[in-house]
């Protein structure tokens, strides 16, 4: 069963939206506009649900690929946010550049040294 089984949109559209939100920090409404321009009209609340459902899995599957991306930025900051995902509260750690571009992210149910070490690697 694929990511889009039982969904109204193709798998590629769902993956684009989740990746663009997590990787580039694009707002849900901006993503709605971008996808509409590309022929895939999607409401911003649908994109929000996709990020909540598929974001953690996308992070898990692509973490090995993005492992060194934070080290190559000249200047970056770490942002920690407490968010609700699938009915559970989680900590979202993000490494961002000075202009707000997301370099890497990590979600954890706990705020402790282990979570920070996994994120900073």
TrEMBL record:
Its taxonomic path starts at: Bacteria, Bacillati, Actinomycetota, Actinomycetes, Mycobacteriales
Task: Report the InterPro entries cross-referenced here.
Answer: DDE_dom, IS_Transposase, Transpos_IS6
Pfam families found in the cross-reference section? DDE_Tnp_IS240 (PF13610)
What's this protein's name? Answer: DDE domain-containing protein
- What are the residue boundaries of the DDE domain, all occurrences included? 74-120
Q: Which organism is it from?
A: Corynebacterium provencense
MF terms per GO, please? DNA binding
Q: Which GO terms describe its biological process?
A: DNA recombination; transposition
UniProt keywords (A-Z) are:
DNA recombination, DNA-binding, Transposition
């Amino acid at each position: 069963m694929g990511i889009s089984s039982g969904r109204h949109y193709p798998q590629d559209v769902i993956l684009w939206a989740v990746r663009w939100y997590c990787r580039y920090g694009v707002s849900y409404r901006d993503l709605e506009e971008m996808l509409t321009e590309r022929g895939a009209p999607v409401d911003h609340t649908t994109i929000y649900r996709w990020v909540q459902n598929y974001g953690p899995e996308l992070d898990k599957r692509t973490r090995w690929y993005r492992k060194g991306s934070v080290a190559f930025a000249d200047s970056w900051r770490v942002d920690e946010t407490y968010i609700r995902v699938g009915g559970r509260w989680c900590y979202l750690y993000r490494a961002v550049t000075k202009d707000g571009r997301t370099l890497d992210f990590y979600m954890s149910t706990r705020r402790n040294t282990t979570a920070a070490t996994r994120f900073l690697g």
